[in-house]
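Q: Hi! First time doing this. I have a protein sequence and I read that you can turn it into a structure. Is that right? Here it is:
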Amino acid sequence: MERHGEVRLLVRGIARGVSSDEIAELFAPFGVDRESIALPRDRRTRRRKGIAYVMVPSAQHAADAIKALNETLLQDKAITIETAAERPPKRPRRFNGPPRRF
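A: Yes, that's right. Below is the predicted 3D structure, encoded as structure tokens:
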């Protein structure tokens, strides 16, 4: 849930073995804690997508984090950081039961 003034950053190039604790440690100087980090997984394979979403407390913290951490190495892999695009609201899914046989 986004609080007023927070900015969501998209971090690309996350190695498979990176934990949210490591990302939190990297972003700690910019006011980020472990609860404000999401490591999404692929729905089908349940493997991590190689990206992370990080909520920083303000636009100034976001700009500072991008400037300081963009193109740095995390577990021997370069990460890129950018402001995440706003996503449209999710549409509710409908379930009409199992497929019918003809």
